[in-house]
Design goal:
This protein has about 425 residues and is an alpha+beta fold. The chain has ten helices and twelve strands. It folds into three domains: about 160 residues, no CATH class; about 140 residues, no CATH class; about 60 residues, Nuclear Transport Factor 2, Chain: A. The chain starts with a helix and ends with a strand. This is PepSY1/2 domain-containing protein.
């Protein structure tokens, strides 16, 4: 009995030491995280001061060469502060608005450095930005100092950040930055169209019922007609209303989303073990093309395949019926299992939004004059892609091979058919 009692006592002591050590380790981790976040917030404050100076400097010079450095600093600092903010546990609405503002400021500076913003417009906008940053910097210093000075535990800090009712100070800052964005960088027509596209504003179809969507899901994916299904609707306030369907069939678990308007497939994802068998790339392409047609997408062409050790990722894009140009903004992504080519993922978000395409001239290009003698044109097709202003532009999509004595590289280049500006250029190997 004494032996058992002694063993129990020893066991309790060991458990107590373990719990004490675990608690100490947990506190140490919390302290490390708090120190990391404190450093990040301090860095963001310092970079904000630098950003203010760079914006002021960019309004001093008219000469493009003299303007180059402050413009580069604006773009760099905006990106770095965005990175700092994204890693901090701050109130979500504020983070979103502040990162959006910084992103637009950086992009605007980049466009100015490329000569795409008139001097008068640049001076007007940056004068407002400079004044707003001065005012915001004061509010940011107060809010961040108050947050760091509380000396509360890390868990309490997180609880405050994630609270349903955020502090008035952060809410006010979120509203302030939102106002800056709307006044300093009002949406252009193309940006407004792009935002409407993201919010599925172009879908004018009549709403469908939950039962209709479930029926459609079973028709599109007959393998799951007998699966256990749970359906739900998107929360109030969502950018667009949709139905969410979760399902389970044997070793397969997944979900699929459909728009409420028209019942369009948005996405589908399936999880299941991948076997050791492997189909060929050609077999995979055949299965992918058969699948998109079975889903009702007849106007697409396969443009890209990528792989990892378990799955193939395949991209299809819509083809314009008038000029047969590829519309890269209207894309469908598929994920296929490598063992048998089963469709494990579908994303049609871009495809169902359907771009509005402008009329555009096709001005011929003498490629012998456009490229060097080292370049050989492998293929040429028409394609639509976005320019810096988010406008769809018709392009000559050229695949070229550049050869020299020591090496060769393949490039994919998109050249505007009207202005002959290079909108995209990437080296493939």
């Amino acid at each position: 009995m004494k032996v058992i009692t002694s063993l129990l006592a020893v066991g309790l002591i060991i458990m107590g030491v373990f719990l004490f050590t675990s608690k100490q380790n947990e506190r140490a981790l919390e302290n490390d995280l708090r120190a990391q976040y404190t450093n990040r917030m301090t860095e963001a404050s310092e970079k904000l001061s630098e950003l203010q100076k760079s914006v002021q400097s960019a309004t001093v010079f008219k000469d493009p060469v003299a303007q180059a450095e402050p413009l580069e600093d604006i773009w760099r600092l905006s990106s770095e502060i965005k990175s700092d903010i994204s890693s901090l546990p701050l109130q979500q609405d504020f983070s979103n608005e502040w990162m959006n503002y910084l992103g637009r400021l950086g992009d605007y500076a980049k466009l100015k450095s490329q000569g795409k913003v008139p001097e008068e417009k640049w001076l007007t906008v940056t004068t407002n930005v400079a004044a707003n940053l001065d005012e915001f910097s004061y509010e940011w210093q107060n809010a961040s100092t108050e947050l760091l000075a509380k000396q509360q535990s890390f868990s309490e800090w997180q609880k405050e950040i994630k609270a349903a009712q955020p502090s008035e100070q952060w809410t006010k800052m979120s509203t302030t930055v939102k106002g800056y964005s709307e006044s300093d960088f009002p949406l252009t027509a193309s940006e407004s169209d792009n935002q409407k596209k993201k919010d599925l504003k172009s879908i004018k179809d009549k709403p469908v019922t939950e039962q209709q969507v479930v029926k459609k899901m079973k028709e599109m994916f007959p393998k799951f007609k007998n699966a256990k299904i749970v359906t739900s609707s998107s929360k109030p306030g969502a950018s667009y209303p949709f139905y969410h369907i979760s399902f389970n069939e044997g070793i397969r678990t997944g979900y699929t989303d459909y728009t409420e308007k028209g019942g369009h497939l948005l996405s589908m994802l399936i999880e299941r073990p991948i076997g050791k068998d492997r189909i060929t790339q050609e077999q995979m392409k055949e299965k992918a093309e058969k699948a998109v047609k079975s889903f009702g997408f007849e106007d697409v062409v396969l443009v890209e395949t990528r792989e990892n050790h378990l799955v193939w990722h395949v991209v299809f894009v819509r083809v314009d019926p008038v000029n047969e140009a590829r519309i890269y903004a209207d894309a469908i992504q598929l994920k296929l299992a490598k063992d048998d080519g089963e469709i494990l993922g579908v994303n049609t978000m871009e495809y169902i939004q359907k771009e509005t395409l402008p009329k555009q001239k096709l001005v011929p290009v003498d490629w012998k004059e456009y490229f060097t003698d080292q370049v050989t044109i492998e293929s040429e097709v028409l394609a639509y892609t976005e320019n810096d202003l988010l406008q769809q532009r018709l392009c000559y999509e050229i695949m070229v091979l550049k050869e020299s004595k020591d090496e060769s590289h393949t490039f994919r280049i998109l050249v505007d058919t009207e202005t002959h500006e290079v909108l995209k250029s990437e080296m493939l190997n």
